[in-house]
Write a structure and sequence with these properties.
Blueprint: H1 11-31, H2 48-57, E1 60-63, H3 72-79, E2 87-91, E3 104-106, H4 111-122, H5 126-142, H6 145-158, E4 169-170, H7 173-185, E5 189-194, H8 213-225, E6 227-231, H9 236-243, E7 249-252, E8 257-260, E9 263-266, H10 275-288, E10 293-296, E11 300-304, H11 310-328, E12 333-338, E13 341-346, H12 351-359, E14 366-371, H13 377-382, E15 388-392, E16 401-403, H14 406-414
Parallel strand pairs: 1-2, 2-3, 4-16, 5-6, 5-14, 6-7, 14-15, 15-16
Antiparallel strand pairs: 7-8, 8-9, 10-11, 11-13, 12-13
Helix pairs in contact: 10-11
């Protein structure tokens, strides 16, 4: 046990040292033998070379601060595991835990968690040790200080674009009248509609958000007067089951599949072997966050947290985003932050590319795009400048107009 002296003039630290000294003495006095001492206790700083020797000789690193902004010791330990073995037990209150999810993360205030995870670490199969260390080392090597600095500077650079963004207006009655008149005056109309959060409200279970009869009636009428396209992150099988009996154009998996004239066409050919690396991470967060679950789609994985405790979900989403950001870097994957969901998919597809594809199929003189979340921003970007782009909700957007909710969307479409 290594305890580097710190703030030794503070009474609380003096008390903690005294209690630790006494506890180590009692344990060693009770369990030590002539040839074995249970706890080797070092209360001093060590030269870095000696510290590396200590890391290398350790089978398990138990690093459990009550609160710590980063904790480089955890990263140093992982970096020394040249044989790929070893187990890191890390406090979830350390900043490093947010990007070291393969470590055994524990609550530092829980005696039971200490005992359970120490036993798990000491009995962990070598194969599992190597798998965990492999992912940790790969992330540490890729997500180094240079990459961190580069991303920080890019974030600063992006703030310059804020003042150049379009000013979004609420869809007032005057703009609504203009929208309806434009639709009726034109003869080549294209309606691009998101599904969840736009045409139907969100459900705790995504499969419960089935289209109702009123929606079918509305879409049937719109289909008669325009080219109607439903664009969604939903998987192809779900949309086939819900809308396969209708003549609507469908786009699923954020732009992988296009359903037109009763036939499915793949717009992109994607690999899915990356899922086997991402899924264990999501499963860990499901275990640590009650009320969350994983949705497996044909070409993406989604972590839903709509039913989770809001405060805990806020913490876990930040943690998961940090872990995933370092994992997807240079792997051709993107992280989509939807409404109470984080989705991982290929960077080669997005809804905007589909919009570009559809606009080349015919010379439309009326185009409207309606969507509610971050994934729909790609559509707003690719739509013509004269198109009616409408964001559901009043969050930051690149759309020209904003509308309150799904009920208002249906009312607007009904007037068409």
């Amino acid at each position: 046990m290594l305890a580097v002296p710190s703030r030794s003039n503070v009474p609380q630290y003096q008390k903690l040292k005294r209690e630790t000294d006494e506890l180590v003495g009692r344990i060693n006095g009770k369990f030590a033998t002539v040839s074995w001492t249970p706890i080797w206790y070092f209360y001093r700083s060590l030269p870095f070379d000696d510290l590396i020797d200590l890391y290398i000789s350790s089978d398990v690193a138990l690093i459990t601060p009550i609160r710590d902004g980063m904790n480089l010791v955890a990263k140093e330990y992982v970096a020394t595991r040249t044989n790929g073995n070893g187990v890191l037990i890390l406090s979830e209150m350390a900043g490093a835990s947010k990007e070291m999810n393969e470590a055994l993360l524990i609550n530092p205030n829980s005696y039971e968690a200490f005992a359970v995870n120490l036993k798990r670490a000491l009995t962990m199969p070598l194969e599992e040790q190597k798998t965990r260390i492999k992912f940790l080392q790969k992330r540490l090597k890729r997500y180094d200080v240079e990459k961190w600095a580069d991303e920080f500077l890019k974030s600063l650079e992006s703030t310059k674009n804020v003042k150049n963004q379009k000013v979004t207006k609420k869809l007032s009655s005057d703009y609504e009248t203009e929208f309806i008149k434009s639709f009726k005056d034109k003869d080549k109309r294209l309606l691009l509609l998101d599904y969840d959060g736009t045409l139907v409200g969100f459900k705790d279970n995504p499969q419960d958000a089935e289209p109702d009869e009123a929606l079918f009636n509305l879409l049937d009428k719109l289909q008669e007067k325009s080219t109607l396209v439903l664009i969604s992150g939903r998987d192809r099988d779900t949309f086939q089951r819900w809308f396969g009996h209708k003549p609507y154009n469908l786009v699923t998996d954020h732009g992988v599949w296009l359903y037109k004239n009763k036939e499915w066409k793949a717009l992109e050919r994607l690999k899915t072997d990356w899922m086997q690396n991402i899924r264990p991470i999501l499963e860990t967060f499901v275990d640590r966050t009650p009320g969350t679950f994983i949705e497996t789609k044909n070409y993406s994985l989604a972590w839903h947290y709509r039913k989770a405790d809001p405060e805990l979900a806020k913490i876990r989403t930040i943690e998961l985003n940090t872990v995933l950001t370092s994992m997807v870097a240079n792997n051709g994957l993107s992280i989509l932050k939807g409404n109470k969901v984080i989705e991982i998919k290929s960077s080669n597809v997005n809804k905007g590319r589909v919009v570009s594809h559809l606009l080349t199929q015919q010379d439309y003189n009326f185009v409207s795009v309606i969507g509610d979340d971050w994934t729909d921003e790609y559509m707003f970007e690719e739509a013509p400048d004269w198109a009616y782009t409408i964001k559901v909700g009043f969050t930051k957007t690149k759309a020209k107009f904003q509308i309150q909710d799904t009920e208002k969307v249906r009312e607007l479409l009904q007037q068409l």
